[in-house]
Structure formats: structure tokens, C-alpha cells
Amino acid sequence: MRRWRRREYPAIAARAKAANEVIFWGDESDLRSDDVRGRSYAPRGETPVVRANHRRANVGLVSAATNRVEVRWMVLDGAIKASTLIRFLERLVRGAGRKVFLIIDRLQVHQARAHAAMASNPS
User: Fold this and answer.
1) Which domain holds residue 107?
2) Residue 100 falls inside a structural domain
3) What is the pTM (predicted TM-score) of this model?
4) Number of structural domains, the chain?
């Protein structure tokens, strides 16, 4: 990462500045109602038991922010899929009104074939 920040990012930033383009940093997150964080309690010698919530809910969030704190996000009903990520990206590009550089991690959903098609044929 350090090498990328020293070698690659300055070139991207210079190109974006020269052409009035914008750089977004993207990420996503999921929140589940049955997720157990932190510690639980049980008397000494007994295994802690966490009661499951049988009405499980899952909410996803995909977001992108610029270095100047321009933030875009989309709340999803359920897990993040390639199709919903593409919908977010289309809205991001349309809302920016100019060319967008999006810097994201290597999450598997980012590497779907549909993304490759969109990247090579942007609207």
C-alpha cells in the first residue's frame, strides 16, 4: 500500500486535477441483526450462550468519498451484489457530472464480470 501511495496515486491525482476529474474512495459494509460483537457472560466453568435472533435482518451500505469530503452513499436491503454495486456506480458517475476515478479494495464483488464490462464501456 505504501508503494502504491508513493508511485501510483500521485499520477492519478495529477491527471484528475489537470482534467477537472474527481477521485472517490469507495467501500461497503453490511450490518446483520444476529451479529454478536464484544463479550458475553457465563458463570465460571460454563460456556456463554448467545440467544439467536430468529428475525434476522441484513442491511448493506455502499459509499464513496472524495478527499474534499464529498460523500455519496446508498443503503441496500440485504447483501451487496454486483448488480447493486453497478447501480451505485452509475449514480455516482451521473451525480459527479465528470469523469470519476474510484479507488476500491479487492472485495470479490468488485471483480465481477459485469464490472469489467462497465469499466470498458462507461456511459
Assistant:
1) 24-32+55-123
2) yes
3) 0.67
4) 1
